[in-house]
TrEMBL record:
Domain of life from the UniProt record: Bacteria
Identification of the protein by name: DUF3419 family protein
PANTHER family: BTA1P, METHYLTRANSFERASE DOMAIN-CONTAINING PROTEIN
């Protein structure tokens, strides 16, 4: 998810850009206040882990050794995972200061922690006190000043942010807090989400979901709560995206969330889906066989470490970065779900820059809260028809995206 990485304009501060990226209503209306509240929430750490499936991304992107990939940084997992495909360069941009600090921490850790065991302990387990000593001994000396200050500053609870890696970093951030709240709500209904993680087959996963999870979405309080747009800020869903998501089902947001959770719980082997472990267990599973993102897999470690010099992290606006590039200079673009809250003018500006900078055969991958692509009818036809929409492949990617959050995964390829 990448709420604030793409925006248009030239405000003086990045905080203004974050606000502009999600504001549609400048008035003091209910909608305007919701937009402002989300913009404020999104200035902090949102995603300690990115929620777009990198396996699907890598297949859709079809990265080759000459590719320059431009992506929204978010939690940084996919930035490092893309390195397994051996691209020439990756540029990751984001306006969220916390996400930039997290990405730079991951790069420094990959380059300077003493081996895969230490790297995995830091980001795979992410709840060991030894990680703090590893940070000071191996990572801190190689961090830029801004990132170091971020991690050593105190959060709202008075704890230094780096201590999150001793106590469970994936329980922190806006999304981590949201999942924690969902677990507390589950307990009110005598439901233990982690029970699903012990299932030994898809059939058992289905039985547990149908018997224990599905009925919760029919509770009056849950239906009322999910009808409040602000209740889903913790999922990184701004008001504009909430409207698109809620429109997917006439029974409202509770039905949409039930459908997405059902896919997460029932469509994929729990033993191979680290997104499910994050949702139901609030962290990755323990042990050598636990599912993790590609960048944390032992077999990919040497390739990731060898190639980290190809990654550039920029605290910048996606569109403004593209505007600095020459024509036909980039190969792959990853927009996450940022377009869901863009105006038609912002979409047009973005796609004009993508089209200008794209090499022949360039690919763009993005996600949407609702199922359909949002481009038809919203960008000028002359611009839109420069691109071929891979409809069948997009539907297949949507079906196989293990995060199960999104209604659609979309692939566009520049026509010859």
């Amino acid at each position: 998810m990448g709420a604030a990485a793409i925006s248009a304009g030239s405000e003086n501060s990045r905080q203004d850009r974050v606000r502009q990226a999600v504001l549609r209503d400048m008035k003091l209306s209910k909608q305007g206040l919701l937009d402002r509240a989300f913009a404020l929430a999104f200035r902090r750490l949102v995603y300690a882990q990115i929620w777009e499936d990198p396996v699907v991304d890598l297949e859709a992107l079809a990265i080759t050794p000459d590719c320059h990939v431009v992506t929204i940084a978010s939690g940084g997992c996919n930035v490092l995972s893309y390195l397994t495909a051996n691209p020439a360069a990756i540029t990751a941009v984001d306006l969220n200061t916390a996400h930039i600090a997290l990405n730079r921490l991951k790069l420094a850790a990959a380059g300077h922690l003493p081996g895969h065991d230490a790297f995995y302990r830091f980001f795979g387990e992410a709840d060991r006190v030894e990680n703090i000593a590893a940070y000071h001994d191996h990572v801190r000396p190689h961090l830029d000043d801004t990132s170091r200050l971020y991690w050593e500053a105190r959060d709202l609870t008075g704890r230094r942010r780096i201590t999150g890696f001793a106590k469970g970093i994936y329980k922190r951030g806006l999304l981590g807090n949201f999942i924690g709240t969902a677990h507390l709500l589950a307990k009110l209904y005598r439901l233990d989400p982690s029970e699903l993680l012990a299932a030994e087959s898809l059939e058992e996963q289905r039985a547990i979901f149908d018997a224990k999870f599905a009925p919760v979405f029919d509770k009056k309080f849950v239906r009322w709560l999910t009808d409040q747009p602000a209740s889903l800020f913790g999922l990184g869903i701004p008001p504009a995206q909430y409207e698109a998501l809620a429109g997917d089902d006439p029974q409202g947001m509770a039905a949409v969330l039930r459908q997405r959770l059902e896919k997460l719980a029932c469509d994929f082997d729990i033993r191979q889906n680290y997104f499910a472990w994050q949702a139901f267990g609030r962290g990755y599973g323990k042990g050598p066989g636990a599912p993790v993102p590609p960048y944390l897999e032992r077999g990919n470690y040497e390739a990731v470490v060898e190639r980290i010099g190809r990654v550039e992290i920029r605290h910048a606006n996606f569109v403004e970065y593209l505007a600095q590039k020459t024509g036909a200079s980039l190969d792959r673009y990853v927009l996450l779900d940022a377009q869901d809250w863009m105006s038609d003018a912002q979409l047009t500006h973005l796609w004009a820059e993508i089209t200008r900078t794209a090499k022949p055969g360039a690919r763009v991958v993005f996600r949407t809260a609702a199922e359909p692509s949002l481009l038809p009818g919203r960008v000028p036809s002359a611009l839109f028809h420069r691109w071929h929409y891979e409809a069948e492949k997009s539907a297949d990617y949507t079906r196989r995206d293990r995060s199960s959050i999104y209604g659609g995964v979309h692939l566009y390829v520049l026509k010859p």
